[in-house]
Write a structure and sequence with these properties.
The complex is a heterodimer of chains A (112) and B (108). With 112 residues, chain A is mostly beta strands. Chain A contains no helices and 11 strands. In chain A, strand 4 and strand 5 form a beta hairpin. The radius of gyration of chain A is 13 Å and the shape is globular. The termini of chain A are far apart. Chain B is mainly beta. The N and C termini of chain B lie far apart (41 Å). Chain B has a single domain, classed as Sandwich (Immunoglobulin-like). At the A-B interface, strand 4, strand 5 and strand 9 of A face strand 6 and strand 10 of B.
Chain lengths: 112, 108
């Protein structure tokens, strides 16, 4: 069974802090994704990666960056956290060129 | 551009009633459509995909290219079906575009 693990279920940070959200998958998937999930807005894609050291912007990349140094790990970085980045963040992975995407449990991030 | 529309935010039905969760899409090519489900305190998971043409937990969904729809149906709702349901579309680059989701509440 595919396992996508996000490092924290809950995280509280302060405005202006640099925040790292980590995601690891164990299925050797090529594709990895970061979404944020907000009530009434559904899931919105922040960034995705097709391969190590490759990244592409999703629909709402502003204020975020990502890092993929190893195939199994995809990190989301908030360079200077702001209160409007308070949200549930979901990581997902999938095989190259295909579906379905497999999701982690999510990280509920609060920026105070 | 690809777009997914779920016109309703909430559907509340009694146990045993039929359920239809609506999904419409916009995409210029040949889309791949999915329904994902998120039960309370659980991770988002795939419910079904149109190319499989299978029934999962009694749910079915048929892709109607003429109406650009992919509605999710179940003839008799169960309490354990209560969850958030998302329709999603995959285009040529493996990106998923999600609808805004609908909360299904099945009352006893």
């Amino acid at each position: 069974d595919v396992k996508v693990t996000q490092s924290s279920r809950y995280l509280v940070k302060r405005t202006g802090e640099k925040v790292f959200l980590e995601c690891v998958q164990d299925m050797d998937h090529e594709n990895m994704f970061w979404y944020r999930q907000d009530p009434g807005l559904g899931l919105r894609l922040i960034y995705f990666s097709y391969d190590v050291k490759m990244k592409e912007k999703g629909d709402i990349p502003e204020g975020y960056s990502v890092s993929r140094e190893k195939k199994e790990r995809f990190s989301l970085i908030l360079e200077s956290a702001s209160t409007n980045q308070t949200s549930m963040y979901l990581c997902a992975s999938s095989w190259a060129g295909g579906q379905p995407q497999h999701f982690g449990d999510g990280t509920r991030l609060s920026i105070l | 551009a690809q777009r997914v529309t779920q016109p309703e935010k909430l559907l509340s039905v009694f146990k045993g009633a039929p359920v239809e969760l609506k999904c419409n899409y916009s995409y210029s090519g040949s889309p791949e459509l999915f329904w994902y489900v998120q039960y309370s305190r659980q991770r988002l998971q795939l419910l079904l995909r149109h190319i499989s043409r299978e029934s999962i937990k009694g749910f079915t969904a048929d892709l109607n290219k003429g109406e650009t729809s992919f509605h999710l149906k179940k003839p008799f709702a169960q309490e354990e079906d209560s969850a958030m349901y998302y329709c999603a579309l995959s285009g040529a680059n493996s990106k998923l575009t999600f609808g805004k989701g609908i909360t299904l509440s099945v009352r006893p």
